[in-house]
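Quick one: structure for this chain?
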Amino acid sequence: MHDNEAVALLRATTLLKELDEEDLLRLASRAVTRRFRRGQVVFTEGEPGDTLLVVATGRLKVLTKADDGRDHVLNIAGPRETVGELNIVEAGTRSASVEALEPTTALLLDRTAVWELVRERPAVAEQLIRALVAHVRRLTGANADLVFLDLPRRVAKLLLRMREAGRPVIELGLAQTEIASLLGGSRQSVNQALREFERRTWILSEGQTITILQVDRLRRFAGD
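Got it. Here's what it folds into:
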């Protein structure tokens, strides 16, 4: 990935969007482009980690292992989203595993590059803190959805979030059991929600491919 493409990608992220052109170019010059095939493990929970991933194309699945050995999906990161923010703040072990849901290209940004910039430009630290606070607020909102929204509405919000650049066709890349673990429900409940959306002609479901037919109806139902 050329530096100008990397700068555009970094600027599009919530975490780094407030940095000026010079700072972004400096980080872009230190970033490494990595490509992952579908199903490839990007990193594993518990291993040392000191890099930030910025998704350029494709999607990454963030997951952790339950005590009974089952995978619990925590998040799906798509283009312009970041994974590993905490490892930029403090080097340590990975709190979750990450796998590629589909062929994915990402930028890897080393923690050292970020902190060299912070030491030279203290104002950058304030910008990063604001971005991390916004990230925590989004997580808080997601947790609130688990408490205050029923599962069908959580399914609707997930479908709307997975739409990329307004495209109506979504390749889920997730089994219904994985969607259920992501949303804190059961596979049967997810299946029932999708069937109801299809009955109302809001979506067309074909395997793991969902076509949103009535986005406004789905958005009103989700409360967005």
